[in-house]
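WARN retry 2 of 3 for item q-0093 after timeout on previous attempt; input resubmitted unchanged.
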Amino acid sequence: MPIEKKLGSTVLRFDRVSSTNDVAKDFASSGAREGLCVIAKEQTAGRGRQGRTWSSPAGDGLYMSVVLRPAIKPSDAGMITLASAIAVAETLRLDYETDAEIKWPNDLMVRGRKISGILIESAIQDDELDYIVLGVGVNTGQSSFPEDVANTATSLWLETRRTVSPEDFADALLPRLEHWYLASLADQASITSHWKKLSPTSQNCAVSVETSDGSIEGITQGLTSRGGLMVELANGEKREIVAGDVRVRTLTV
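OK item q-0093 returned
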C-alpha cells in the first residue's frame, strides 16, 4: 500500500528530548500522518531493544523516529524491522564506505562493534495495527564511549575519520528507508533475500540466543517467512526465534 507522503517530508527538529520514539508516539497517538519524522540533537533517555540504554550525547549521533501506518497484520511487522536494517546498512556501506553488517534482527555492526540500532514500537487496537514508530540511532561523531560499551560500540568518526552531520546521514537514509519500507509491504521475498546478503551470521553460524524462555545454542539456518531466525539445536530440532539476543559463538575443535 503506497504511503501518503514521502518519509521525512515533514520533519520536526528538537534540541533535547527524552527519546524521539516517545515524541513520535505522542504525535502518532494524536493522529499524525504517516511519514512524520522526529529528529533530536540529544536524547536524555534514549533506549534500544529490551529496555537497554542508548547513549545519545548532543551532536554525536542521529536520533530519529518515523511514524508509519502500514495496512498489515501486527504479526507481519517484523518485516519492517528487517527492511529498516537493510536501509541503514546500505547507507553505511554505499554513502560512508564502511563494511556494515546486520546482526539479527536489527543491529548494525562494523568490525564486530555496534554502530547503529533500530527500535520499532507499535500500537494495536482490537487486534489491528494502529501505527508503528520506527526509531533509528546511528553513532556518527563519537571519539569515545562510556566504559560499559567502550569495547562493543563504534562510530562513523572512529571508522572513517570523517566528520558526518547527523542531518546529512538522515538525508541519505530516508530515501532508502522509504524504498525498503515499501518493499516490505509488497515483496517480502526481496527483503529476506537482500537481508541475508548483509547478514553473514544468519546462515551456518554457531550462536547462543537469550530468549524470554532461557538460553539456547545452535547453528543458524536463515530466516523464516515472517522474519524470525531459524536455529538448529544440537539434537536436530529446529526452533524459530522471534525475539531474543544473539551472540556468535566460537567453536572449539
